[in-house]
């Protein structure tokens, strides 16, 4: 489908949608959001892009095979859960590292975040696989 | 060693992820699949020994304390089932080496299989009702993927029916979950056991119990909710139908047993009475359905239904002996049924068909196979001293003890009809002269050099059946221990919540 309006609007919207999806991913630990919903939002962005530009350009844009994303996500989620096991705690227990100490606040990074990134990759990979397969058939 | 409790769930998922890495390298994917299954088998057995030695073990996921986070709890019932799952997983993976061709590997056979195994173990081990729901979903998706693996019309037809009815069951399950959470404010099973005693509106609670009964009943295939099972189980590759037949309905039975011993025990006369009626009708319809068919796997599918009736009957009678019988029945049935499905696959290779009318002469051409069929088939029918005999005997004795003579009679008659079905297969496929002589002459068993890979798992499972039959003592002790824990939920509650 070649619609100038749709294509122009998509260009503007997709970047906004993707930024919002990343915001959701990061804010997920303590407020609404998280890997799952972030990935769903990102997938709507890619779906829009697929409708406007066709599946081939989406494949070019994401560069890697979405099925690889699933593997990567699954491995990352499992690894972030297993990290706790190797530290002698129950599976999935959050481990936290202080990245930077600033005067007003400390920046910490924990395994729950990596777990969320893993979920993000799995969900995004799955939905992209489905959308692209449907569009290409 | 608390991490041992997570391993039966983690190992399959790691194996699935590793398998997905080698999407195009089929040999390596097969190796990862088998290695994963072997490792899974070992951790499952490890957990069995751990729990037998130390009693119920629990672990709080992510270290969140019990009623709030997700608890994994392994009592005897759970670990027996987990150990059988590991065994079946390994056997079916071995069989798949001969059957599963590159096309199916490319479609993701091994990762799906591992996800299914992980999901089943998760369902057996979780102590949280919502988590159980999640594992049901995992199993449903993986099994749907496996069912339609060959992309044939009959598979899609069966697969779609399967997924629709199971989605409906899931819907019921989550509605029940919502209502239960609304009434008690918790979904931890041990905590539910305590909280449910404080609920004043018992009528509403009974309604919720019935919703759960329907949801798990669909999964287990009890009357009148079983019709999805015979239309879907005979379509996929044999390795797939064997694992589905061995594991999936049994997860439904497990969920019924867990919920109706731990949570919904406030009105045993009503809920378990209902279960008893359903169980008897299930037994009878299943076995009559089997009598009407002449296709190897369809007959076996109907027998799953009738056998599920026995297990639910054990739960419904709700005495120590009956529950011991039900647990032993589960153990015996999973092994025997998966084995029979595998044998149907070998018969198909040897005789060229699943249709009994087109099979024949297998006794002559494949004597060893005939022997291997004889063991699980007549164990299923309840011939002494094979494992099915002990299971059936305990259940019938338990029903006589509570003076449920109709139930006992039904169980005995159904056993007799099972003999009829099994002799039908025996007579048609093994004894009758082959209608198409060219098949028996063909060296089909060695197709792709897979003969050994097919026979090895079948032999292993048949040996397990014999061991269960001839040395039932140790397994009966295990089952009795499981029944003891089921009838005294305080042990479980204490293990999960601590000294509350």
Q: How would you describe this structure to a colleague?
A:
The complex is a heterodimer of chains A (137) and B (500). The longest helix of chain A is centred in the C-terminal third of the chain and has 26 residues. The mean pLDDT of chain A is 89. Chain A has a two-stranded antiparallel sheet. Chain A is mainly alpha-helical and 137 residues long. Chain A is built from five helices and two strands. Chain B has one domain. Helices cover 77% and strands 2% of the residues of chain B. Chain B has 22 helices and two strands. The radius of gyration of chain B is 22 Å and the shape is globular.
What is this structure, in a nutshell?
Helices cover 72% and strands 8% of the residues of chain A. Chain A has five helices and two strands; from the N terminus they run H-H-H-H-E-E-H.
- Helix-strand makeup class of chain B: mainly alpha
How would you describe the oligomerization state of the chains in this entry?
A: heterodimer
Order of helices and strands of chain B: HHEEHHHHHHHHHHHHHHHHHHHH
Major β-sheet profile of chain B: 2 strands, antiparallel
Radius of gyration of chain A: 18 Å
Chain pair forming the biggest interface: A-B, 16 and 16 residues
Report the total helices of chain B. Answer: 22
Structural class of chain A: mainly alpha
Measure the end-to-end span of chain A.
15 Å
Give the arrangement of secondary structure elements.
The complex is a heterodimer of chains A (137) and B (500).
Chain A: H1 4-27, H2 35-53, H3 55-62, H4 66-86, E1 96-101, E2 106-110, H5 111-136
Antiparallel strand pairs in A: 1-2
Helix pairs in contact in A: 1-2, 2-3, 2-5, 4-5
Chain B: H1 7-21, H2 26-54, E1 57-60, E2 71-74, H3 76-99, H4 102-106, H5 109-125, H6 129-147, H7 153-184, H8 189-195, H9 202-220, H10 228-232, H11 238-262, H12 268-291, H13 296-317, H14 320-351, H15 362-365, H16 367-381, H17 387-401, H18 405-431, H19 437-441, H20 451-470, H21 472-487, H22 489-497
Antiparallel strand pairs in B: 1-2
Helix pairs in contact in B: 1-2, 1-5, 2-3, 3-5, 3-11, 3-14, 3-20, 5-6, 5-11, 6-7, 6-11, 7-9, 8-22, 9-11, 11-13, 11-14, 12-13, 12-18, 13-14, 13-17, 13-18, 14-16, 14-17, 14-20, 14-21, 16-18, 16-20, 17-18, 17-20
């Amino acid at each position: 489908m070649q619609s100038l309006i749709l294509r122009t609007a998509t260009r503007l919207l997709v970047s906004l949608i993707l930024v919002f999806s990343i915001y959701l991913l990061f804010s997920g630990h303590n407020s609404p959001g998280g890997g799952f919903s972030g990935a769903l939002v990102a997938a709507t962005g890619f779906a829009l892009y697929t409708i406007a530009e066709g599946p081939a350009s989406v494949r070019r844009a994401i560069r890697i095979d979405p099925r690889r994303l699933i593997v990567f996500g699954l491995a990352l989620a499992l690894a972030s859960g297993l990290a706790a096991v190797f530290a002698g705690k129950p599976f999935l227990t959050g481990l936290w590292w202080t990245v930077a100490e600033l005067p007003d606040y400390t920046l910490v990074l924990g395994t729950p975040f990596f777990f969320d990134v893993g979920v993000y990759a799995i969900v995004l990979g799955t939905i992209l696989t489905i959308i692209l397969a449907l569009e290409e058939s | 060693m608390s991490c041992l409790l997570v391993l039966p769930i983690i190992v399959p998922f790691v194996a699935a992820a590793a398998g997905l890495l080698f999407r195009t390298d089929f040999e390596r994917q097969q190796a990862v699949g088998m290695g994963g299954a072997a490792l899974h088998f070992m951790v499952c057995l490890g957990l069995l020994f751990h729990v037998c030695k130390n009693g119920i073990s629990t672990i709080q996921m992510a270290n969140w304390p019990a009623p709030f986070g997700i608890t994994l709890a392994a009592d005897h019932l759970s670990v027996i089932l987990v150990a059988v799952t590991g065994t079946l997983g390994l056997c079916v993976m071995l069989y798949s080496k001969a059957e599963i061709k590159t096309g199916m590997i490319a479609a993701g056979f091994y990762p799906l299989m591992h996800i299914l195994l992980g999901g089943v173990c998760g369902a057996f081990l979780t102590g949280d009702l919502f988590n159980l729901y999640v594992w049901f979903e995992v199993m449903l998706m993986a099994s749907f993927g496996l069912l339609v693996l060959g992309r044939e019309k009959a598979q899609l037809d069966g697969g779609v029916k399967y997924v629709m009815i199971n989605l409906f069951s899931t819907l019921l399950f989550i509605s029940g979950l919502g209502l239960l959470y609304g009434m008690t404010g918790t979904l931890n099973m041990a905590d539910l056991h305590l909280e449910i005693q404080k609920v004043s509106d018992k009528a509403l609670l009974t309604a919720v119990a019935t919703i759960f009964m329907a949801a798990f009943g669909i999964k287990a295939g009890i009357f009148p909710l079983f019709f999805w099972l015979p239309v879907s189980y005979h379509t996929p590759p044999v390795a797939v139908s064997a694992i589905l037949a061995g594991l999936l309905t049994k997860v439904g039975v497990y969920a019924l047993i867990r919920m109706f011993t731990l949570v919904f025990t406030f009105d045993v006369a009503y809920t378990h009475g209902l279960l008893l009626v359903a169980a008897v009708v299930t037994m009878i319809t299943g076995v009559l359905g089997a009598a009407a068919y002449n296709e190897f796997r369809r007959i076996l599918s109907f027998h799953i239904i009738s056998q599920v009736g026995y297990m639910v009957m054990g739960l419904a009678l709700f005495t120590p002996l009956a529950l011991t019988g039900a647990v032993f029945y589960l153990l015996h049935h999973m092994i025997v049924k998966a084995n029979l499905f595998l044998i149907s696959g070998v018969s198909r290779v040897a005789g060229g068909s699943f249709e009994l009318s087109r099979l024949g002469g297998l006794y002559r051409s494949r004597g060893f196979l005939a022997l291997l069929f004889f063991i699980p088939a007549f164990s299923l029918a309840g011939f002494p001293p094979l494992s099915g005999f002990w299971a059936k005997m305990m259940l019938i004795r338990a029903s006589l003890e509570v003076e449920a003579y109709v139930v006992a009679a039904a169980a005995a008659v159904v056993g007799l009809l099972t003999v009829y079905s099994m002799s039908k297969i025996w007579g048609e496929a093994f004894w009758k002269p082959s209608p198409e002589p060219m098949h028996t002459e063909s060296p089909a068993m060695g197709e792709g050099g897979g003969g050994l890979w097919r026979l090895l798992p079948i032999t292993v499972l048949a040996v397990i059946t014999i061991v269960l039959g001839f040395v039932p003592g140790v397994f009966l002790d295990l089952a009795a221990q499981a029944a003891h824990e089921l009838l005294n939920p305080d042990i479980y509650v204490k293990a999960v919540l601590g000294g509350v």
